[in-house]
Each structure stands twice: as C-alpha cells, then as structure tokens.
Write a structure and sequence with these properties.
Blueprint lengths: L8 H30 L5 E6 L6 E11 L2 E5 L7 E4 L12 E8 L7 E8 L2 E4 L5 E4 L12 E7 L10 E5 L6 E4 L5 E5 L20 E7 L5 E7 L9 E2 L3 E3 L10 H6 L7 H7 L27 E3 L5 E5 L5 E7 L4 E6 L5 E5 L7 E10 L5 E10 L21 E3 L3 E2 L19 H29 L1
Parallel strand pairs: 9-15, 14-16, 17-23
Antiparallel strand pairs: 1-2, 1-24, 2-5, 3-4, 3-6, 6-7, 6-8, 7-25, 9-12, 10-11, 10-13, 13-14, 18-21, 19-20, 19-22, 22-23
Helix pairs in contact: 1-4
Length: 456
C-alpha cells in the first residue's frame, strides 16, 4: 500500500474564501486611498478682477483647504506657464488654504489669454473650455490719487488676514485686494477703469456710492454700501455682517471693539480718529427737528461730474419730500425721509451738461410748506477730475467668470513627485483564488486516491 499525503478539502475551501475576501478588501482599501488623495475641492466663486494692460487677477475659494495655481496656456501648448498663489510666489512650496488669489502679470496690452485653474492634483476649466481674459490698452494719463482702505475682522472680532476684498463702483471694472495678516487692506480707486477698459472711470471723490464685498471662504463673507467720503478708512467690517453706511449717524466703537481692532502700530489718538466716520466733507447738517437739508449738491452753483447724480440729505423721519429738477427735460419725483433721518433721490435719466436747479418742497412740524432751491452745474465730460455715478447699480456683486468649473481629464495633469497610492487590481484576487482552487482540487483527488488504495 502506498502512503499518500492528504490535504483536507475543508482547508482548501477556507483558503479559497480567505483569498476572495482578502482580495476584495485589498482592492477597496486601495481605491479609497486613491479617492482621498486624488480628489481636489472644486473652485467656488471664480472671479476675474484688476484687469489692466499688463495684468489681471483670478480669485476663488474652496470648501476645504487645497493648493491653488493658474496654468497660463501658450498658443502652441508647449510652453504653458504655472503661476502660483500670490502668497506662495516667494515660498519653496505651495500652502493649502480655502481662499485663493493669483495675480498674473508681465502681459501684453490688448492680448487674449487662456488659462485653467489648478488645485492639488486636479485642474479645472470652464465647462470644457479654458477660461479667457483680454488685457486692455495702455492709458497715458494718470488720475488724481484716491485710495480706499480699512480693516476686516473675523466673526469673533479678531484680525481677518488673507481674505479677498472686492470693490465695485457703478460703471467701473471690478477691483480687488487681499487683506494682510492684521486684516488691513487698501485699494487705489483712482485707477479703476470704465467697463470697456478704454478710460479711467469718472466718479466723484466725495459722494460716489459704491459697494464692497469681502469673501473669507469658510470664515464667512461681508458686504457694505458706502460713499467715497467715508472710505479713508472704511469702518471695520466684520465677516458675517452686511452694512449700509449711507444711513449711519457717526457711530462710535465700543471699548471692547477697539481692543479687538488690529491697530498695534497706531497711537491711541490715531485709533480714535480711524475708528469714526468723517462727514465733514458733506457740510453742516441741520438738526432733524429743525428742517430738511440738501447735502448733494451741498452749496450753490456746485459742479457735479455726472449726468446721473444721486441727490440726498437729512430731515425729520417720515417726512415726505417733493423733488423737481429744472432742466431741458424737467424731472419730478417724491421720496421719504427714512427712520435714520436720511433721504435719497437717484436720477435715472441723463442730465445734460450745463446749469440746473433742484427744488425741494416739504411740510415742516408746524404744518408750513417749506421750499429749498439750489442751482448746480453738470459737467460729466470733464477730464479734470473723476465724476460721481448714480447709486442704483451699486450692489455688492462680483463678476464671476464661472459658477461650475469642470475637472480636466487626468491625462492632462503635470507630473508630480508626491506619493499617490496606485489603484488596486484583480491580480492578487485571481492568484489567491487559483491557489485556493488548486488546493481544493488536490485535496479531492488525494482523498479519492486514498480511498481507492484502501479498497485495493
């Protein structure tokens, strides 16, 4: 009788099942690693701003921290240029963040540029088409300097650094900047261009109404409407809040809020000065219980550098004001003084250059009809100084160039030195399955041979 080694059939079955389970677990775990490593947060609120003859800015946010860059595409697609986030240009590595801000410079005037947005290991375009922007032509003259500035605070009152501040003046292109580590920001309004980009924007240095939008990504947003008379500096903006400073009555900061303002480089007197509104440029304001005031135009014969000005002033809350503008085509209307003692009357039709008269009529507290007349001159075509543009379009909006960026195919991604796990395959499972199957078959044949030997 020959002695035959027997491998139990049960053991073969156990090995087979273990191999199948192990292979499935291995594939799933590897696929999960690839998914976590390769998926990049999709850019949100992609916005184009600061378009000049030599540069433009692209900004966006992501729901989670990620690296961010721009790939500027060359015409032959052989010399694409990667431009890092402004805060990474002087760094040896890319930092992950939720607010991204890339300035593309050293460009050619009047040229069209195409680009895609990069983040971590993915790149994004505009629904299958690269983003596109055209630089504007160079302007020879330089406007009078006018800089708006301020400070951004977090929802808890601390300095909010690295957030985007957008400024939209009616009729002008969108401009933006990043707040520094102390939450401070500054934007030169005087170099804002018209919508077409072929001229400097005309606006009034004292009474132009415009909008600010602050985007802090996951930290929150803030928006404000104000006039150019109170933007040096703009009152502190706290993320999560909306402001309308046109109706404010010289608000003062509490002692607690003053301590939270990041003015470590200022003296106590300077902090007090920078914390208050300054309405001195609007002229004297009559107490609310004594009558109605006209703050724009604030003096007889004042020159207004806009053909669509906004008239405004103060008065007793709830008072009804009849307004008539005497010109070639007379304009009449009515407005009401709001609960803050302010009234506004934007002109929707173009006023011709030349002399005009505005007449206000209201009934005072004693029931007597009062009339206030004031002449003014419209000079909307003058190049001597910027001109005011009317309010209605002054809303805190930004020009978004894509709401739904799309992920480019993986084959278009640049090589990376980062260690990304490779996707699992079926080979380990198949090999394990074959081993188990061989063991089962061997066990069956061994048992059959052993039984046949016993019969003999």
């Amino acid at each position: 009788m020959h002695k035959t080694v027997k491998i139990p059939t049960l053991l073969g079955l156990i090995v087979l099942v273990a191999g199948l389970v192990g292979g499935i677990v291995m594939i799933n775990s590897r696929q999960q690693l690839v998914s976590k490593a390769a998926v990049s947060p999709t850019p949100q609120g992609v916005t184009l701003s600061n378009i000049t003859d030599r540069s433009f800015t692209v900004s966006w946010t992501t729901p989670t921290s990620a690296s961010g860059f721009i790939k500027l595409m060359s015409k032959d697609k052989k010399a694409d240029k990667v431009i890092l986030d402004d805060r990474d240009k002087n760094s040896a590595s890319q930092n992950k963040r939720t607010v991204h801000y890339v300035v593309v410079d050293s460009l050619v005037p009047g040229e069209t540029y195409k680009f895609v947005i990069g983040g971590d290991n993915n790149q994004f375009d505009q629904n299958g088409v690269p983003f596109s922007v055209q630089t504007v032509q160079t302007l020879s003259s330089t406007p009078q300097s006018d800089i708006a500035s301020g400070v951004i605070l977090s929802a808890t009152g601390q300095a909010a650094g690295g957030v985007i501040v957008y400024i939209q003046i009616p009729g002008g292109q969108l401009v933006s900047t990043l707040s520094d580590s102390s939450g401070r920001w500054a934007v030169p309004l005087s170099i804002v261009r018209s919508e077409k980009g072929d001229a400097w924007l005309n606006y009034d240095l004292s009474v132009t109404v415009y909008a600010i939008k602050v985007d802090g990504g996951e930290a929150g947003i803030a928006d404000a409407i104000l006039t150019t008379s109170i933007d040096k500096p703009v009152p502190a903006l706290k993320l999560g809040n909306s402001y309308d400073f046109r109706q404010s009555q010289e608000p003062r900061l509490s002692a607690e809020n003053k301590q939270n303002l990041p003015f470590e480089n200022y003296s106590a007197d300077e902090i007090e000065l920078n914390s208050l509104f300054d309405f001195s440029s609007l002229g004297p304001v009559t107490p609310l219980n004594e009558g109605l005031t006209l703050d724009n135009p604030k003096k007889e014969g004042e020159v207004i550098y806009s053909d669509k000005p906004e008239f405004f002033g103060s008065g007793p809350s709830g008072s009804s004001v009849e307004i008539k503008i005497e010109s070639v085509n007379p304009i009449t209307g009515e407005t009401e003084v709001d609960s803050n003692g302010k009234w506004f009357f934007p002109v929707t039709a173009n006023l011709q250059n030349g002399n005009h008269i505005i007449t206000l009529k209201w009934t005072d507290a004693n029931g007597i009809v009062q009339v206030l007349k004031r002449s003014f001159v419209v000079n909307a075509t003058s190049g001597d100084r910027p001109a005011y543009v009317s309010t209605p379009s002054a809303t805190p909006t930004s020009k978004s160039i894509s709401l739904t960026p799309t992920v480019l195919p993986k084959k278009s991604l640049p090589a990376t030195s980062s260690a990304i796990p490779k996707s699992g395959g079926l080979a380990p499972t198949v090999v394990t399955f074959m081993i188990g199957l061989i063991l089962v078959i061997t066990g069956i044949f061994s048992k059959v041979k052993f039984n046949s030997n016993l019969i003999k």
